[in-house]
Design brief:
Elements lengths: L3 E6 L11 H12 L5 E8 L1 H12 L7 E12 L2 E12 L2 H9 L3 H16 L18 H12 L8
Parallel strand pairs: 1-2, 2-4
Antiparallel strand pairs: 3-4
Helix pairs in contact: 1-4, 3-4, 4-5
Length: 159
């Protein structure tokens, strides 16, 4: 078996040229995590749509970089048993802002957001701790996130 990744772009957001490379990177992350049989959807959008999602589902009236909506439903088809892990939304407007803050390129930041979303969809949480420039993470989720990113540092989504 494998994993199913569904990628879409909000209708008000221009589709990035690198969109086709997202699935391959996510498959590599799931392989590193030894996860098989998951379905994950990823939506790329702008800050205005992200603000609507954040307000609707978290009652926070501001944009954010990444949101994860865990599902955990399961179903079976001719290929096997599947877990609908959930949905990840990523703001393409916030991506370069974060990239600048962390002094990283947009490729590295996009990988961070995707890994972060995948870990959330698989039951991990970081509480009030967030990645900060120059600060080593303390919680299990963020430590694993950074470990995965180091392992996959040569992977390119945005070329």
């Amino acid at each position: 078996m494998s994993n199913r990744i569904f990628i879409s772009v909000d209708e008000n957001t221009e589709s990035p040229l690198w969109l086709d490379a997202v699935e391959l990177f996510m498959q590599k992350v799931l392989e590193e995590l030894k996860i098989d049989g998951e379905e994950i959807s990823v939506l790329f959008c702008g800050d205005s749509y992200m603000q609507v999602l954040n307000k609707t589902y978290r009652n926070i009236d501001s944009t954010t970089d990444v949101l994860s909506f865990e599902n955990d439903e399961e179903y079976e088809d001719e290929e096997g048993k599947w877990k609908c892990a959930g949905d990840i939304a990523i703001s393409l407007d916030t991506l370069p802002v974060n990239s600048s803050y962390f002094e990283e390129d947009c490729n590295s930041e996009l990988k961070r957001l995707l890994v972060h979303g995948i870990l959330h969809l698989n039951g991990m949480d970081h509480g009030d701790e967030h990645i900060e420039k120059g600060v080593e993470p303390q919680c299990e989720m963020l430590i694993l996130q950074e470990k995965l990113l180091k392992k996959l540092k040569d992977e390119k989504i945005i070329k």
